[in-house]
Amino acid sequence: MSNLQIDQLTPGMVLAEDIKSKNGRLLITHGMELTEKHLLILRTWGVQEVVIATGIDNAQGSSLQNPSEITAEQLEKAMEDLRPIFRLVDLTHPVFKELLRLAAQKKVLANG
Predict the structure, then answer these.
(1) In 16, 31, 98, 110, which residue has its Cα 20 to 30 A from 54's Cα atom?
(2) Taking Cα atoms as reference points, which of 86, 103, 104, 2 lies closest to residue 50?
(3) What's the pLDDT score for residue 28?
(4) Domain 2-60 sits in which CATH superfamily?
(5) Is the pTM of this model over 0.85?
């Protein structure tokens, strides 16, 4: 995790912690990939600094990296196995897409 000033943020970075206003109102939840709209919200609410998840490849659209012991084939198989669980959600939505990927990653690591 890295603390970054608002001016250092770019779209595609992933939040490591929830962002709340000074009065405690939840503005953006952790795990969200920042967009231009999020950056505008942060500036509007006067947020000065946020915590960004490490292990992010900002040049590649900032998805969290897979552990090196997981092959692409293992991950794809696990994702196919888990698709029935995610049948009621829109897997084109970045949050659900990432949840499926993380669940598949955990499944591969748990099965050894």
Answers:
(1) 110
(2) 2
(3) 92
(4) Molybdopterin biosynthesis moea protein, domain 2 (3.90.105.10)
(5) no
